Amino acid sequence: MFRYFRLNDPLRLFGILFILVLTQLPFLLGKTPFTIYALKHMMLGSKAAEGAVIYRDVFTHTAPFSAIIFSWLHTLADQSVTVWRVLALLSIFLQACIFNILIILTSAFKENTYTPALLYVTLYSAFFDLSELTPLLMAMPFILLGFYFMFRHVSSTQRRDFEVFMIGLMLALASLFDWTASFYILGTELALVFLTNTIFRRYLLVLAGAFIPLALVTCYYFWQDGLELYASQGPGMLFNWASFPLQDKRIYGIIGIVPLLYFLRGLKALGGRRMNYRQVRFNYIMFMMALTGAAVFMFSEYKSPSQLIVLIPPIAYFSNHFLLEIKKPVMAEVYFGFLFLALLSVNYLSYFGQDRWSSLFNFKPLLVQGITEESLDKKVWVIGEDFSPYAGASKASTPYLEWSIARNELTNLNFYDNLRRILMHFENDSPEVIYDQKNVMPELMERIPKLQDKYEKQVGKSVYLLKKKLPEQD
Hints:
Layout: H1 12-29, H2 36-49, H3 64-77, H4 81-105, H5 115-123, H6 135-155, H7 161-175, H8 183-195, H9 200-223, H10 227-233, E1 244-245, H11 250-270, H12 277-298, E2 302-303, H13 312-325, H14 329-352, E3 379-383, E4 395-396, H15 403-410, H16 416-428, E5 433-436, H17 441-447, H18 449-454, E6 455-457, E7 463-466
Parallel strand pairs: 1-2, 3-4, 3-5
Antiparallel strand pairs: 5-7, 6-7
Helix pairs in contact: 1-4, 1-5, 2-3, 4-5, 4-6, 5-13, 6-7, 6-8, 6-12, 7-9, 8-12, 9-10, 11-13, 11-14, 12-13
């Protein structure tokens, strides 16, 4: 397989698409993985599709461009998990094409080959939620384009202001899909310091390219009277050190050990190669991309394997160096086959053998655990990090979608302004079912007596149901 994609033939990209679909086919035809992260995005999309302005009308750390895409998907496909996953696969294929084409255009290897794209889609098959439509997945094409312009500027003897400007612009667009991608702006500035003798004006030009889209979005929220909420929930989330690990941390070691070994072996292979100036610069840039990707993962609020996709481009690049250096074609096939089968085995066994392998690692908190009867076709509010009760709900009620944002207001009930806003949100969008995972409702109902008249607690559950109105008697 590896030898087939080593030929310089653009039609090999159709083979890449075939392999991508083939590896994901069990999830598309069988029980499609449904994570609470995806469910949160669906609930956000439903709110945005109704005209809610994120940050002002729904409290979330999700970047605005992602919210727009989620609202469009809700309008077109509602909560169809399969449709969302198919779109994610198309995004992955687009990334693989961009990644491979950029490598060919920059002559990063001695030979033009389509094995980087092959490794790219192979690494996406390491775990089932890597191929899920997330904000970071939608940001990746812009991150790749930003690093392409970065390489053109670093390796060229004729420095052009346009390329420097495009670095900032592409990375800012990526940040508007996922705020953590803004770390790449800092990463490129550091790369310019260490890899070039760029004049000070061009450092500012990177920031100017990033400033324009960010400034336009900021102006929009100013006009919508939500500037303060936008600043605290949007870019401000980068300073929120709280994080919510969604599964057993051992899963990172299990899915990452083999790719890490290939990555390190690729770094070692570079030591014995003769490379020109452009190739050396590209190696430095990809290594900087790996370091910045690690920072992006560390600052991600919800720690899940899907956030590791920022490491896929550098791992695919350096692993390709290792495989291309193998002189015997048969051994190259063996090494690639081992990587391919190892990643697929972890992917399939972890999902389809959940009960059998639960003692090895527990990732069930990452998955939606069925639909509860109380929430079916109801307006639901979940107080906590587990979004599972939203499954089957008609919509998410109240603006308090994410606990990390709502916590400050819902747990500080000694302040009158907090009580006033909570009551206002209840009156504007009253939930029919409330899942209280943080035991907030008892004190909330005590402070706001109106809620005692509207809701009753289910016996033995932290679930509150809206009381049915009795018919008026003549």
